[in-house]
Amino acid sequence: MSASTFWFLAVGGGAAATHMAVFALAQAHMWPELANALGFCVAFFVSFAGHRLLSFKDAGTTVATSFKRFMVTALAGFASNELVFVMLLRGLELPSLLALFVALLFAAGQTFVLSRFWAFRR
């Protein structure tokens, strides 16, 4: 396993844990779909900082360029996350934390490819 892959998994795991923690705290106060969005917003900054400093520290782009590209990448990941989350939560009636966990896994692969080959292009 390359160092980049290791750090991507570690940072992604930390961001996913942040996302799930915010979701778990917020879901009692709002619709699950909004709690998912709030978790995404908080985890976005954990993810960007970790990926920029650790996963893709040899990025050939400026921080500003990486931030803009990563925002597009993350929003694309969140769109697929929210779609899968809603299908699992409302369609299959899975428990909300399980639906979120599966949705986060689904979006992780897409995020890695877009991050590696575009947002933090080497």
Description:
- With 122 residues, the chain is mostly helical.
- The protein has one domain.
- Helices cover 83% and strands 0% of the residues.
- The radius of gyration is 14 Å and the shape is elongated.
- The relative contact order is 0.16.
Percentage of residues assigned to helices: over 70%
Treating each run of at least 4 consecutive H or I residues as one helix, how many helices?
A: 4
**Overall strand count:** 0
Residue stretches low in confidence (pLDDT < 50, at least 5 long) are none
Distance between the termini: 18 Å
Helix-strand pattern = HHHH
Number of domains: 1
The fraction of residues assigned to DSSP E strands is under 5%
Q: Which shape, going by the Cα principal axes?
A: elongated
Q: Main sheet?
A: none
Q: What is the gyration radius calculated from CA atoms?
A: 14 Å
Short description:
Helix content is 83%, strand content 0%. The chain is mostly helical.
Any key phrases for this structure?
mainly alpha; 122 residues; 4 helices; 0% strand
Could you outline the blueprint of secondary structure elements for this entry?
Elements: H1 3-26, H2 32-55, H3 63-91, H4 96-119
Helix pairs in contact: 1-2, 1-4, 2-3, 3-4
